[in-house]
What does this fold into?
Amino acid sequence: MSDSKTTMQRMKILYLYKILMEKTDENHPISMPEIIQELEKLGISAGRKALYEDIEALKMFGVDIVSTRGSQAGYCVVSRSFQLPELKLLADAVASSRFLTEKKARQLIKKIGSLGSPYETKQIERQIYIANRTKAFNERIYLNVDAIHRAITENKKISFRYFKYNVEKKKKYSPDLHICSPYALTWDDERYYLVAHYDKYPDKLTNFRVDRMESVQLLDEPSQKLSKGFSLKEYLSSTFSMFSGTSQDIQLRFENELVSAVIDRFGTDLKLYPDGDTHFTITVKVKAEQPFFGWLFGFGTKAQILHPEDVREKYIDMLKEVLEKSTS
It folds into this structure.
């Protein structure tokens, strides 16, 4: 037997595993003659007895292989690391991720589908809708995310170019190269953001849209250390639309019917205080900027700012300014 044939024979059990994973599920078993035929296509000869022993070895290894009887007699893998509903959930998340380009989203969904049976893969790819969604244009975002993760792990600073779009829909880059200490990547409002310390604003954290970052490079310089007691969870809960700013305690009053909306935004750990029979109050730490005011305004007269007074006035001034410009 030639060296190549010997090598292929040694790989028999690996190819048997591959055949079972790629061609079977609980509704689609493969018969022993079909297994032998598939192996022969690869140049591997195998007898039934040896294959029975290989299947038992795979079962001992942890592969959930079941033998079937009747008109569909054969063998199939009946459970995998991910079940079909889980794969659909992951594929849906990828499809709705605006920071991914349409091309990259399709590639990822195909890979997610490969974690299931071939019959499930077809079902996932057919049912997930991507086209005509607003998607990012930055194809290098994967490389950027990888570089950011490595920088966070190694406690290193990064440099990058940052851009926004002008009215001609062309990229307008910031004049200076951005250098910052990356702390976390987070998902908000269907976008991927980097939370970082940026030397230009040393007294607060800054959030950057990852799809608007280019040429991300790791630097040898160590990252600026986070202050003791810093909680990323608290920071994110106080941030609206990833708008940077200084957080402060604000007391709010809502009608009772808005309990679900308030919990959706601030979480179940939030303390609610009854205020009469029809209202409740909360105290939360947020950045009192336009994104927060916009969220609050969505509830109309059913939500109020109680304290502090300067935030109330800031909110009222913003509403007056909007009204004046809308009627002028």
